[in-house]
């Protein structure tokens, strides 16, 4: 006989992950421990260990919670500039205003040595890449792209440059920057290539 989900277990997991996410944002990945979450929530350490026997599993569950946001279908009704502003603007908002933006550097660091963190990062990037690719596919279908436009590289630039600017260079992602970034990508996508 199949067991029904226990709402109390779900509530306990949710409370623990909320606490882990708060710790990640306030103090960093090393602060996320079974003891710290127990102290914040009152959930016994033995209960936490039953849910997440290894500390990496607990941290990765919190990383995953931050990386999972509402899924909106990308706008692909054009023109390219409008669609790119919307989709890259969502990324900029995520990096500037959500828990993901605060903990992304920690996920990236963990991904260097932890397979589960790497898998999470790869899934997040694949989702973003798929959204941006769909914008370019629609623009191509509308005849907006120049012959030979380097679409694969433009998709990578659309995603990678905001990360580099925010997380590596420590520079702001402002509306003015977003407008210039989109204009550069559109220019490269629509101007004839010279060889």
Automatic annotation (TrEMBL):
Keywords: DNA-binding, Transcription, Transcription regulation. Residues 33-52 bind DNA. One of its GO terms (molecular function) is transcription cis-regulatory region binding. Pfam families: TetR_C_11 (PF16859), TetR_N (PF00440). Residues 10-70 form the HTH tetR-type domain. PANTHER family: HTH-TYPE TRANSCRIPTIONAL REGULATOR RUTR (PTHR30055), TETR-FAMILY TRANSCRIPTIONAL REGULATOR (PTHR30055:SF148). This is HTH tetR-type domain-containing protein.
């Amino acid at each position: 006989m199949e067991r029904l989900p226990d709402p109390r277990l779900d509530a306990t997991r949710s409370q623990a992950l909320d606490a882990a996410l708060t710790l990640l944002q306030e103090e960093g990945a090393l602060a996320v421990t079974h003891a710290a979450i127990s102290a914040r929530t009152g959930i016994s350490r033995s209960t936490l260990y039953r849910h997440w026997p290894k500390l990496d599993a607990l941290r990765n569950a919190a990383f995953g919670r931050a990386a999972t946001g509402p899924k909106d279908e990308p706008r692909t009704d054009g023109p390219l500039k409008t669609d790119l502003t919307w989709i890259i603007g969502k990324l900029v908002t995520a990096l500037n205003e959500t828990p993901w933006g605060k903990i992304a550097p920690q996920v990236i660091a963990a991904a260097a040595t932890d397979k589960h963190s790497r898998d999470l990062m790869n899934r997040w990037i694949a989702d973003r890449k798929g959204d941006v690719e769909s914008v370019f596919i629609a623009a191509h279908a509308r005849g907006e792209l120049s012959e030979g436009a380097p679409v694969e590289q433009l998709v990578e630039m659309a995603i990678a440059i905001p990360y580099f600017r925010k997380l590596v260079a420590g520079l702001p992602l402002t509306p003015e920057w977003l407008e210039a970034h989109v204009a550069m990508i559109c220019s490269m996508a629509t101007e004839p290539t010279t060889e």
